[in-house]
Amino acid sequence: MTPRLLPFALLVLALAGCSAPDADAPATVAGTPPPPAAVPASNPAEAPAAGANPGVVAETAAMPRLQARTVAGEDYDLAGHRGKWVVVNFWATWCGPCLQEMPELSALHAMRDNVEVVGLAYEDIEPDDMRAFLEKHPVAYPIVILDPYDPPKDFATPRGLPMTYLIGPDGKVAHQFLGPVDAGKIEQAIVAAGGKVG
C-alpha cells in the first residue's frame, strides 16, 4: 500500500466500526445478555454475537424441547407436533425484517398441511400489548412471548433476529436460518432434508 493511501485506508476502517444505536431496540439490564440485533436481509451472516454472559445458551439441542403458553392462552408443546415440519421463528415487534417475513410465514402455516409455524417473541412485552400488536399484524400461527433474560434452554440464544429453526417430523433440527426467510427457502430446506412439501 502506498504511503498516500494508508491514512485513507485507516479512516475507512475506523468508520466501518461505527454505527448509530438502534432507537427501537430495548434497553439492556446490567448483568444480562443484550437483546439480539435485527439482521439485515442483505447480509445475515454479519449478526452480532450474543453477550459474554455465562448464562447464554451457545448451542441448540439436536432435538429441542419447548413448552410454553401462547398469547391466546393455549399450551404449546413442540413435541406434540411430531410428524410435521415445524418452523420455530424467533422475532420481535421492533425488528423490521421480522415484520416483513410474518405474512409469508403465516401463509405457509395456513396453506401446508405438513408444515406448522410457531412465533417466539423474544422481547420484554406485556401480553395485552402483544395482542394489540397482533390485531394490526395478524398471523395464522401461534405466538409465544419469551423472557429474553430466561430463554428456552434447548435453543441457543439468538445471535440476531429473526432466527428460525426448521424442526423435522422426528423432532430434530433440520436447518437453521439467521436473517429473514421466505416460504421458498423453507420448502427448499425441507426437500434438502428428504421431506416433501404438501
Automatic annotation (TrEMBL):
It is found in: Cell envelope. The keyword Disulfide bond applies. Its main location: other. InterPro entries: AhpC/TSA (IPR000866), Thioredoxin-like_sf (IPR036249), Thioredoxin_CS (IPR017937), Thioredoxin_domain (IPR013766), Thioredoxin_ResA/DsbE_sf (IPR050553). It comes from the Bacteria. One of its GO terms (molecular function) is antioxidant activity. Gene3D superfamilies: Glutaredoxin (3.40.30.10). Residues 39-53 have a biased composition (Low complexity). PROSITE patterns: PROKAR_LIPOPROTEIN, THIOREDOXIN_1, THIOREDOXIN_2. GO terms for cellular component: cell envelope. This is Thioredoxin. It comes from Stenotrophomonas acidaminiphila.
